[in-house]
Amino acid sequence: MVHPTPSLVIVGSGLAAWTVVREFRKLDKQSPVTLITRDSGDYYSKPMLSNALASGKSAAQLVSTPAAAMAEQLDVRLLAQTEVAAIDAAARAVHTSSGPVSYNRLVLATGADPVRLPLQGDAAGQVLSVNDLSDYALFRERIAGAKRVTVIGAGLIGCEFANDLVSAGYAVDVIDPGAQALGRLLPVVAGERVVTALVEAGVRFHFGTTAHAVHQQDGALAVTLANGHALPTDVVLSAVGLRPRTALAQAAGVHTARGIVVNRQLQSSQPDIYAVGDCAEVDGQLLPFVMPLMQAARTLAAHLAGQDVRLRYPAMPVVVKTPAIAVVVAPPSAGAAGEWLVAAEPDGVTARFVSTDGALLGFALVGTATSQKAALQKALPNVLE
Ligand SMILES: Cc1cc2nc3c(=O)[nH]c(=O)nc-3n(C[C@H](O)[C@H](O)[C@H](O)COP(=O)(O)OP(=O)(O)OC[C@H]3O[C@@H](n4cnc5c(N)ncnc54)[C@H](O)[C@@H]3O)c2cc1C
Predict the structure, then answer these.
(1) Same domain, 41 and 189
(2) 79 CB under 6 A from ligand 1?
(3) Does residue 38's CB lie within 6 angstroms of at least one atom of ligand 1?
(4) CATH number of the domain that 174 lies in?
(5) Do the domain assignments include residue 309?
(6) Closest ligand 1 atom number to CA of residue 131
(7) Domain limits at 84?
(8) 215 and 121 share one domain
(9) Is 325 in the pocket of ligand 1 (CB under 6 A)?
(10) How many folded domains does the chain comprise?
(11) Cα–Cα nearest to 32, from 55, 9, 16, 13
């Protein structure tokens, strides 16, 4: 199938891709838009993947608008279940599993891949990670009838899954090489409160060690830790981070670093190739969260519609979805110089990250202290001016 008429082509159908299309259509109802995605294209909210279990939601129930309805509403030519294998920047075409598609402008909204740990053992291949609807469907299939789940990683996604699983009645072990939960986001005292709340809910943490191997054992699994202990379990879920998908762009000669490098118009080093969402590195920053990608998608849509715009990021706190304890965090920018000033009360922790001259650069709030979110958010500087 060849599509000879060049159009705006968007690769991906996650929140970034669909938000670009929705925002673009508000400004331009005429120009043809083609959306190519290797998945179904169904519209869903990815953050729900880590808190849908306790509310009993299946993968199908997480779809808020099916792909065909999205395509019709937004007047998009949708090529679903279609993988983009290569970009020919000189010919302005992408090579897909259903043939070449020409573009006049190309938007990469290809997301990020879960990081896979190099695990040993005859069941290493059974380790799951949940990063999209089909992963979630498989996860639900594997935990059906299971009792014990081991989560590798005590970061944001690992803690959210641990809370969701324990609330749904599973015995949950969490393994992390650090000394605390949410180590990249929270100062020690705040992290300790999260651990205490999750332990009270029934989660068992194993800090200061890593998963080394996963073996079949007695009809179930066993995770061998680097400290020599073994955890019998039924399902292993890895949540050790995400890595932006850069390979397509890199092979096309687009400049990539940790992500696809783009400027404040979301424009890459190649004319007419853009990147947005988890795959993009904007001004040296990777911000794999919903709020930043919404801001970026709006800016990109306006730029594509001919407006003179420049991406700004306001302060964008992230709410950690752990019902066992409320947590809101607005981490300081990577490399920001300063220190955490922590006030710990019995029911909450207020942590302010301040520069040497006393300016607020970030915060972390736990428990009842989360009521201060709005006030502290106002006091924060923009992430990108
Ligand atoms: C479990 C979980 C919980 C989260 N919770 C929160 C939260 O509470 N708050 C928050 O702010 N953020 C949260 N996040 C992060 C947030 O969900 C992501 O930042 C966001 O959804 C990323 O959207 P995206 O469109 O950039 O990428 P994705 O949703 O990953 O979409 C990428 C798309 O590209 C397609 N694709 C990739 N390569 C190709 C190719 N070669 N050809 C064709 N198609 C391709 C894929 O099929 C997919 O459709 C969470 C993430 C996870 C995994």
Answers:
(1) no
(2) no
(3) yes
(4) 3.50.50.60
(5) no
(6) 53
(7) 3-112+243-304
(8) yes
(9) no
(10) 3
(11) 9
pTM of the model: 0.96
| Closest ligand 1 atom to 288 CA | 19
Decide if pLDDT at 385 tops 90.
Answer: no
10/62 same-domain check: yes
Nearest CA to ligand 1 atom 38: 110
User: What is the tens place of the pLDDT at every residue in 324-371?
Assistant: 999 999 999 878 899 999 999 999 999 999 999 999 999 999 999 999
Task: State the average pLDDT over residues 12-37.
Answer: 98
- Tokens of residue 374, six digits: 């709005």
Tell me whether residue 321 is in a domain. Answer: no
Tell me, in angstroms, the distance from the centre of ligand 1 to residue 356's CA.
Answer: 36
Q: Which of 222, 238, 254 is the last residue of a domain?
A: 238
Chain segment 180-226, per-residue pLDDT in tens? 999 989 999 999 999 999 999 999 999 999 999 999 999 999 999 99
Residue 384 lies inside a defined structural domain of this protein: no
- Using a 6 Å cutoff on CB, does residue 107 contact ligand 1? no
